[in-house]
Amino acid sequence: MSTPPLRTLVRTLVHAVVGALVAALVVGSPVPPAQAERVTPELFGMDLIQLPEPAVPLGPTPTARLIVKWAGIETTRGDYDWSALDARVRMAEENHAKPLLTIYATPAFHAVGEYVSPQWSYLRPPSIRAYRAFVRALAKRYGTRVDYQLWAEMNVPGNYLGTREHMAKMVWGGSKEVRAAAPGALVVAPQGPVRLKGNRNWFRKFWGLRVHGKPVGKWVDVATFSGFPLAKHGPEKQIRLTKWVRRITSDNGFTGPIWIVEVNYGIRLPRPTVPVSMDRQVANVVKTYVLNASIGTQRVYWHYWSKPTSVMDTAMLTEDDQVAPPGKAFGVIQPWLIGTRAEGCTVKRDDLYSCLFTTKRVERRVVWTVSGKRRGVLAPAGATTVSSPDGTVRPMGSAKRVQVGLVPVMIESPRATD
Predict the structure, then answer these.
(1) Is 271 exposed, middle or buried (0-12, 13-18, 19+ CB in 10 A)?
(2) Under a CB-based contact definition with an 8 Å cutoff, are residues 281 and 22 in contact?
(3) Model confidence over 146-162: pLDDT tens digits?
């Protein structure tokens, strides 16, 4: 048999590699399992930007996002009142959560650009000099106790009225100040929603910018976005937004982690949300963290630790400020995932999801149906327990199948060995 020419061998190898990558994407695994990073506690974040303090002590929350209202701290030029922010940072730390500080709201005397009515002046972009001075003061005060997000939603007029180019200069200047005053703290990019075409266009063009000779992504350690999908979409569609952000940032040379800094469901602004069942609310929480862990999302901040609101369909607390089933699930599922390696998800009949996480000794499969239809799933050989997000753990005994539906369950079994 004659040896194939080199060109044919190279073409064959390329086709094989591409085929393997396509197969990995189909099952939702972005990297081969051997290279998958372990799921860390920091995956589980709580977005507290709307709250001065939680009405109910936080559950296990390794990271917490806090708003830094610049206009409320620097009320006169050059004078800073840190008291309210000090209290919020202390609150987070007392709950064993590392704070992520998100800067927002330009003081009127530092605003530049087109004039708007005084009550909206905080939406205008700040002068770069003033912004750098504030970030410098912020980083000197809190050091590496916190991480620093350089602005809130950048592509929403209700949060920022400046240009992409000005925001890129803010990212450059803020990054320089954090890295000088708090080396070791993470510099986190501004986020924005990407569920609408206009949002995505703004986001894409921003990440394509260069500032001071480098792509904007070179000035930050972390890329972020607001993970709210369209009102009719659940976590299975939300994960597509995460993949889109990874693709856009990667195409522009950014290889760092992706964080979702806000996520919830059912948002139809300005109309109120459509209420959903408690089972669906629990499923929203569990599936959001499982699916994002399966593709290597490093942090997901749930928006937020509160009772039901009129604009989001999933609440962590009850009307009388008790921990609701979704809030309990947020804590229960953490031991399911933390310390495991994500091996990807499979989907059967566009309905039955199974996401695999492994340690040296065990395999954990989180299983559910999108439709909510009950299905009998064949358990892996030697399966020992079935865990539910309400904290229930049932022994498998001699059962061969597990009934699964809308609310995910976790099936644990010994790790298969060669």
Answers:
(1) exposed
(2) no
(3) 999 999 999 998 889 99
Query: Token pair 């009129």 is at which residue?
Result: 310
Report the distance separating Cα 24 and Cα 30, nearest Å.
6
**Which of 307, 340, 373 is the last residue in one of the domains?**
340
- First-to-final CA distance of the chain: 35
Record the tokens describing residue 408, joined without a space: 């995910």
What stretch of H or E contains 353? strand 352-358
Structural domain range at position 391:
343-414
Q: What are phi and psi of 82, to 5 degrees?
A: -95, 0
Domain containing 177 — which CATH number?
Answer: 3.20.20.80
- Whether residues 102 and 167 share a domain: the answer is yes
**Contact at 8 Å (CB) between 132 and 174?**
yes
Residue 374, pLDDT score: 96
Give the phi and the psi of residue 370 in degrees, each rounded to 5.
-65, -40
> What rounded mean pLDDT belongs to the chain?
90
> Which of these ranges, 25-29, 131-135, 200-204, has the smallest mean pLDDT?
25-29
Of the pLDDT bands very low, low, confident and very high (cuts 50, 70, 90), residue 31 is very low
Distance CA 162, CA 291 (A): 34
Task: Give the domain-ending residue among 340, 374, 390.
Answer: 340
Same domain, 335 and 200: yes
Cβ count within 10 A of residue 159: 17
**Cβ atoms 100, 62 nearer than 8 A:** no
Cα dihedral 17→18→20→24 (10° resolution):
140
Record the pTM.
Answer: 0.90
Residue 148 CB contacts under 8 Å (≥ 6 apart), including other chains: 100, 101, 103, 135, 138, 139, 174, 178, 182, 185, 186, 187, 188
Residue-wise pLDDT tens digits, 58-71: 889 999 999 999 99
In degrees, rounded to 5, the angle at the alpha carbon of residue 244 between the alpha carbons of residues 253 and 135 is 60
